[in-house]
Amino acid sequence: MNQTPVELLTAFTTAGAEQRDAAYQRLVAALWQDGRATDLAPAAVPALLTALDRAPADRQGGLILLLGLLVGAEQPGTDGESAGTDGELAGTVGKELDRFLDLLAERDAHPGRTLALLFLLSHFPAERDRVLAATEPLELSQDDLSRLTRVLQPLDPATAVLGRVWPSPAEWVLSEAERAFDRSWVDALAPAQLAATWDGDTRMLIGYSGAKAYWALRHGSTEVVADTSPHRTTELSADATGTADLTRHAGVLRCPACAGQLSVSAEGAHCTGCAADYSSAAGHLDLFERSEPADPKDVLQNAAAMRNIGLHYETVLRPAFLRLMGGNFGGQVTPADEDRYIVEHTGPVDGPVLDLAAGAGRWTAVLAEAVGSERLIALDLNPAMLTWLSGRLPEVPALRASAQTLPFADATLGAVNCWNALQAMPDPAGVIAEVGRCLRPGGSFTLLTFQQAADPIDRHFQGTFRGPGFPDGMPLFALADLRAWLAAAGLTVRDEYTPGTFAVITAERAA
Hints:
The protein is α/β, with parallel strands linked by helices. The chain is built from 19 helices and 13 strands.
């Protein structure tokens, strides 16, 4: 027998600790599904507001989060319009703003309730001054405060900062040159693109705020675990003047245009098949063949061009990404866990070891300790990342090339590692097929990526993330799909590690 929203609400507010989460999921499903409010929501919102008076603090947080989801469901999509709060649900909730501000002032509540309130209040930019004034006594972290301040801020085309705000504006430190670079491409955007990008950034920040609040409500903690790995350092050089010796691996390299043999030197490479020439600069050999010119107005690509992107990625973006996509706010998977997995499961046979989508070299450094830098090749598509990697690991040869067409001959690589990158590939099945093609029999493929969350709220927040090439959200995976792609590539799964929504897999090329 179906329960009414009021019955579901009562069940949630009175449920014991063991039944709380299941009761909450039933309540949410009745009123909100896949980012949309159900037909039952308008009549149920007044009951949710009334229940706040009698619910325990931890249940209050859940109700507040649900109200935030319902208000957010009324906001228009990222189609050039600014997010608004003039819908029926927002109007009903907005009339109770004083109640939420009063709750914000209470300091002895459940730790997740304050975060849930910040998430809800993020949807009311018209009340910006009142909301920010109410947060002043709270001594919020710069992370939380700058995120709230930005999402409540009106768009001013003359001063707008785009693409450099997630997971919080406080965590971005830009040079004057980078600010000038940003100003040049932001000023060139059409008004509709400017508004849509601003709205997309706002939604990313609200999504991260909601994900953090939802985690805190379930775990009774707001303490986010930091990356303390020895490979996380703030003393990296981003200056790379030379290219590590690739000649020792020249026999396995192939032209990405015609698959011909490459002749490699310190200056670059020459294809003996199609006579294409490739240059070496800033610490890497550039084998990337772009089929069409880059769009100078590609907002996300422009935002990824900062000189210190390698350091910023490792210290800010990567940990935040793991929290959002992997549910890792509490550090369930630590950097030491990741390092240990790579070391223990990388099983190279003869041939070079490829760090695929190596980024700034975080795992290249781990692999260098495990198998020796003389065996390694680092490959990425972002030249700024490769410059950083080469400044940090000058002994490891680096390639700029596409993962969709790996520049290696068949069955030549001894092992491949692809860590926290497959979800950013436009054709992940094709990338896995390329890995299978290039691996020698018995060679290992270690992989970290993310599953789409089974929890619909977590899944919704995962979908708020935008990245280069994914302006509408980054698609995540089902384990069954990953297994099928690996099998189709001739790879046999040897190990799976799936805490939270992580998917950490070791596969081996069949003999």
